[in-house]
Specification:
Distance between the termini: 68 Å
Shape: rod-shaped
Strand order of the largest sheet: 6-8-9-11-10
Oligomer: single chain
Number of strands: 11
Helix content: 55-70%
Largest sheet: 5 strands, mixed
CATH topology of one domain: Heat Shock Protein 90
CATH architecture of one domain: 2-Layer Sandwich
Length: 528
C-alpha cells in the first residue's frame, strides 16, 4: 500500500509539473513581461506626457505676461503647475535670456527627471522661453506599487490554478486510479472475488468495466482450471498406483533375471572346473587302473614263480605311475584352490590384499575353457611385485568381461587372434592395467557409446548392452580408477584401466553393491 501511495504521489507530482510547465511558466513569463511593460510605461511615457502637458500649458499661459512684461500675471499659472510634487523646476526667460519667472522645489536633487524646453511666440514674434524639470520619483513609486499589485494578482491566480488543477487531478485521476490499482492488486494476489469499483462514465469508468469483465473471465477460467486440476490429480493418482504396480513387477523380474544370471555364472564356473579337472583326474584314473591290472598280474606270477626282471619292471611301472598320479592330483588340487578363490572373490566382493598377477592368472584360468578350442590365445605380462588392497572379485569380473567380449566381437570370423593382459606400475599411487587385442576394432560411431547402458551391436543375438556399462561402473566406482578405450578398425582395440593400489575406503553398503554388480555382470558381453 505504501508503494502504491508513492507511485500515485509520483504521478501527481509529474502531472503537476506538466501543468506548471505548460500553464504556470508561460503565464508567469507573460505576467512578468506585462509588469515590466507597465513599469516602463508608467515611469517613462506617463511622466513624459504629464511633463509635456505642463510645459505646453506654461507655453500658452506665459504669452500675455511676457508681452505685457508683467510677471505677476504669470505667477498664478506657475503656482498651479507647481502643485504637482513631480515638478521640481520652472524657469521662464525673457527674449534676451533674462529670468522672468522661476520656481524651484525644495528637493530638487533627483537625478531621474525629464527636462523640457519651449519657445514662447506671439503673432510670429519670439517673446522668450520656458523650461520645465519633471521628476520621475513619484512615477517610479506608483509603478512599483502597481507592479506589486499585479504580481500579487499573478501569484494568486497561479496558486488558484494549481490548486484547482490539483483538486480535479486528484478527484478525477488519482483517486480512480488508486481504487483501480487496489482492485488490480487484489486480483493479482489471487483474490478473484475482489470487487471492481464503479466509476464515472469516462475513460476510467470504461477501464473499470473492462477490469470487471477480465475478473469475471479469470474467475470462470480459474474455477474451470481447478476442476481440471482435480480431475488430472485423480488420474495421476491412479496412474501412480499403476506405475507402482508395474515397478514392483519390474523389480520382481529384475530379481529373477539376476538369479538366472547367477545360476548361469555358477554353471559356467562349474563347467570350467569340470573341464579343467577332467584331464588330471582322467590321467590319475588311467594310471591307477593300469597299476591295478599290473598288480593282479604280479600276484599271479608270484603264485607260479616270479623272475627278478618282472619284479623290477613292476616296480618301475609303479614308480612312474605313482609319480603321474601324484602330479595329476597336485594339478587337480591347484585347480580346485584357484577356482575356490575365484568363487569366493566373485560371490563375496570383499576387499583384501592380493597380487595383481595372481588375479590375472586365476581369471585366465576361469576363461580358458572358452578359448581352449579356438585359435585365439591369451597372454599375461604383469609385474609380479604389484600388490593391491582392493576388491579382487570385481577386478576379475572386469577382466573376464573384456576377454569374453574380445572372443565374441574382436575375433568374430578371424582365423587367429591374441589378447594381451599387461600390468605395470605408474607411480606411487596407481598402477596401469591394459587389455588389448589385435581384432577387427570398434567403428568410430560406436566407440563413444560403448559404456552407455543397453547399447549393443548384438541385439537379438544374446547381447544385453549392460556388460561394458557395469564394467565402467565397477572401475570408476568400487575400484576408484579410470578406464579409457582406443581402437582402430582392422588393427585392434585397447582398454587402459588406471587403478589405485588402495581402493577407496567403502562401507558395507559399497561392498554389497559391488557384490550385486559382480553377480549381475556374469555372462554379460561387450556392447561394441
Amino acid at each position: 500500500m505504501a508503494e502504491s501511495k508513492s507511485k500515485n504521489s509520483s504521478l501527481q507530482r509529474f502531472l503537476l509539473l506538466v501543468v506548471v510547465a505548460s500553464v504556470a511558466i508561460p503565464a508567469t513569463i507573460t505576467g512578468l513581461l506585462l509588469i515590466r511593460e507597465n513599469f516602463h510605461r508608467t515611469v517613462d511615457n506617463d511622466s513624459r506626457e504629464m511633463a509635456t502637458s505642463y510645459i505646453e500649458l506654461l507655453e500658452a499661459g506665459m504669452t500675455m505676461p511676457l508681452w505685457n512684461i508683467a510677471a505677476d500675471l504669470g505667477q498664478p499659472l506657475i503656482d498651479s503647475v507647481s502643485i504637482d510634487p513631480s515638478v521640481v523646476r520652472i524657469q521662464v526667460n525673457a527674449l534676451h535670456g533674462e529670468q522672468f519667472l522661476f520656481y524651484q522645489a525644495q528637493s530638487s536633487e533627483d537625478a531621474a527627471q525629464i527636462s523640457l524646453s519651449r519657445e514662447i511666440i506671439y503673432d510670429g514674434e519670439l517673446l522668450g522661453s520656458v523650461e520645465l524639470d519633471y521628476s520621475l520619483e513619484n512615477a517610479r513609486e506608483r509603478a512599483v506599487n502597481e507592479s506589486r499589485m499585479l504580481l500579487v494578482i499573478l501569484i494568486s491566480q497561479l496558486i488558484f490554478t494549481i490548486f484547482l488543477v490539483s483538486y480535479f487531478l486528484r478527484s478525477r485521476v488519482i483517486r480512480p486510479l488508486t481504487r483501480l490499482e487496489a482492485a488490480a492488486a487484489g486480483i493479482a494476489s489471487g483474490d478473484l472475488k475482489t470487487s471492481i469499483p464503479k466509476l464515472k462514465n469516462d475513460e476510467f469508468g470504461q477501464l473499470s468495466e473492462q477490469l470487471e469483465h477480465m475478473r469475471g473471465s479469470l474467475e470462470s477460467s480459474f474455477t474451470l482450471l481447478e476442476e481440471r486440476v482435480r480431475e488430472r490429480t485423480a488420474d495421476l493418482v491412479n496412474l501412480n498406483h499403476e506405475l507402482k504396480d508395474t515397478l514392483d513387477q519390474l523389480k520382481q523380474a529384475q530379481g529373477n533375471l539376476v538369479q538366472q544370471e547367477k545360476l548361469a555364472a555358477l554353471g559356467s564356473l562349474v563347467a570350467g572346473v569340470a573341464h579343467e579337472l577332467n584331464t588330471p583326474i582322467g590321467n590319475g584314473l588311467t594310471v591307477a587302473s593300469s597299476l591295478y591290472d599290473e598288480t593282479r598280474q604280479l600276484r599271479k606270477q608270484m603264485a607260479g614263480g616270479m623272475t627278478r626282471s618282472a619284479l623290477e619292471t613292476y616296480l618301475d611301472d609303479m614308480d612312474q605311475g605313482t609319480q603321474l598320479v601324484v602330479s595329476s592330483l597336485d594339478r587337480a588340487s591347484e585347480l580346485v584352490s584357484s577356482f575356490k578363490q575365484v568363487a569366493m572373490d566373485r560371490t563375496s566382493a570383499q576387499r583384501r590384499q592380493f597380487k595383481l598377477a595372481d588375479v590375472m592368472a586365476e581369471t585366465k584360468l576361469t576363461v580358458s575353457p572358452a578359448f581352449k578350442h579356438t585359435p585365439y590365445i591369451v597372454d599375461i605380462d604383469c609385474d609380479a611385485s604389484i600388490e593391491l588392497n582392493s576388491y579382487p572379485g570385481p577386478l576379475g569380473q572386469i577382466i573376464t568381461n573384456l576377454l569374453n567380449n574380445a572372443l565374441i566381437h574382436a575375433f568374430a570370423g578371424s582365423e587367429s587372434g591374441r589378447v594381451l593382459i599387461k600390468g605395470e606400475e605408474v607411480d606411487e599411487e596407481y598402477c596401469r592395467l591394459e587389455i588389448s587385442d589385435d581384432g577387427c576394432g570398434i567403428p568410430p560411431d560406436n566407440i563413444n557409446r560403448i559404456f552407455d547402458p543397453f547399447f549393443t551391436t548384438k541385439l537379438g543375438e544374446g547381447g544385453n548392452g549392460l556388460g561394458m556399462h557395469i564394467v565402467h561402473n565397477l572401475v570408476t566406482g568400487v575400484l576408484g580408477g579410470t578406464i579409457e578405450v582406443s581402437s582402430t578398425q582392422g588393427v585392434g582395440t585397447s582398454f587402459v584401466i588406471r587403478l589405485p593400489y588402495r581402493a577407496p575406503e567403502g562401507s558395507a553398503m559399497t561392498e554389497t553393491s559391488a557384490s550385486q554388480d559382480v553377480e549381475e555382470t556374469h555372462g554379460a558381453t561387450r556392447n561394441e
